[in-house]
Amino acid sequence: MSYQERRRIVVTNIAGISAGCCSIVFFISNYLNHYFLLCWLDLLATLAGFSVPIFYRYNRRVLPPLIVSTIFSICCTISTFYYHNNAEYFLLLFLGVNFIIWKNDGIAFACGVFNGLLFFVVKINKLPPLATTTAEWNRNIVIVISLGLYLYFLHFFKRQTTAYQNQIEEQNKQLEKLNASNSKIMSVVAHDIQSPVATVYTVLSMLAQGHLEKDEFKQMSGQLLSQVNNLQSNIASLLEWSKNQFAAPATRKESIDVGEAVETVYTFLKPQFQAKSVDLDKSALQPAQLIADRRQLEVILRNLLSNAVKFSYSDSTVYVSCQHEGPLAIIRVRDTGKGIEPFVLEKLFDPGTVHSSYGTGNERGNGIGLKLCREFALGNGGDLSIESEPGKGCTSVLVLPLNP
């Protein structure tokens, strides 16, 4: 619902309830002073005022409020003709409020003209009252209440407008910050993509021109394969991250066997493992049925395992385990590679921070994949954290709910 619509509903409800409460006070006063016609008019105005929130509750936002507004105007006009009780000043209040509450300019203008004409007719009326004139104190109270309500609505309108302006300014600041962050991220990612592509292009050009022997190319193919796999992972993470910036990802939870999910991802990443002669140890992977989105879980596991290989040394092992802790499964992916510096680890999940890093095979990374993984983990009712010490490797801890 737009700000203007919310403001219109709030103002209309306040106007209706305020008019209903004032009518109750006038009803009691007029009843005690035996102004019985005014009592009937006050009773009608009370019912009309308190009906406004009910109409909005059931989404009746045009005709019923228009009828209520007309009833108020007619009641004030009749009471003024009969008793000269200064109720015409409420017509000025209705004139101002109508321009706030009506979304349709035609209705707002028509209501304003209607109340303005009634006020004009009442003020030029020189006829004596048709009944006993109300006491002076009563007339003064009507003026004070109408003036007080008018000032209140002016204050309310100003406060609402100021709040709306502040909200717009805050959104603009957040948008500027997001744009600056996205520009920085895209510049880093562009460099990360360009570097391995340039390397592959150079090697292939040398091979095509006969400057590189096939044996030399075969020796370099492992490193090229690792860089291409890393590039593929970065592009996949970038695409997923880009989609999440425009719309929240749809999470379709289902029961997933954790061992099956790990095996699926490992099959996809096997060339990357083989290129660096890195083994995968799944001996501590306890059987578990997770409740999560399958695609998002595979994205998480692919990023965690890919990062573990990227920062592992050749001829080493990556360990993946799963343990049960109450209703949760704790999945750990551990490597014994170069680890993460504390200042990088501290801002690893900061949405406005991008830090390029190099794996043990000179593979580049930028951390977008980990940010995406944490968003997916949170969206599936879990979490993701990273534990690391420089030179001692890294452990990614993924927490997800078990299927009960």
Break the fold down into its secondary structure elements and pairings.
Elements: H1 3-32, H2 36-57, H3 63-83, H4 89-101, H5 105-124, H6 136-208, H7 214-246, E1 253-257, H8 258-275, E2 279-281, E3 289-293, H9 294-310, E4 317-325, E5 328-335, H10 342-346, E6 357-358, E7 364-365, H11 368-379, E8 383-388, E9 394-401
Parallel strand pairs: 2-4
Antiparallel strand pairs: 1-3, 4-5, 5-9, 6-7, 8-9
Helix pairs in contact: 1-2, 1-6, 2-3, 3-4, 3-5, 4-5, 4-6, 6-7, 7-8, 7-9, 7-11, 8-9, 9-11
Descriptive account of the structure:
This protein has 404 residues and is an alpha+beta fold. It is 65% helix and 12% strand. The protein contains 11 helices and 9 strands. A hairpin with a 2-residue loop joins strand 4 and strand 5. Helix 3 (63-83) packs antiparallel against helix 4 (89-101). The chain starts with a helix and ends with a strand.
Feature tags:
Heat Shock Protein 90, 404 residues, alpha+beta, 2 domains
Total number of beta strands: 9
Structural class: alpha+beta
CATH domain fold name of the largest domain: Heat Shock Protein 90
Q: N-to-C terminal Cα separation, in Å?
A: 38 Å
What is the CATH class of the largest domain? Alpha Beta
- Please give the share of residues in helix: 55-70%
Number of structural units classed as domains: 2
Architecture of the largest domain, according to CATH?
2-Layer Sandwich
Query: What is the makeup of the main sheet?
Result: 5 strands, mixed
Radius of gyration: 36 Å
Instruction: Give the neighbour order of strands across the main sheet.
Output: 2-4-5-9-8
Question: What pattern of helices and strands is seen along the backbone?
Answer: HHHHHHHEHEEHEEHEEHEE
* Percentage of β-strand residues: 5-15%
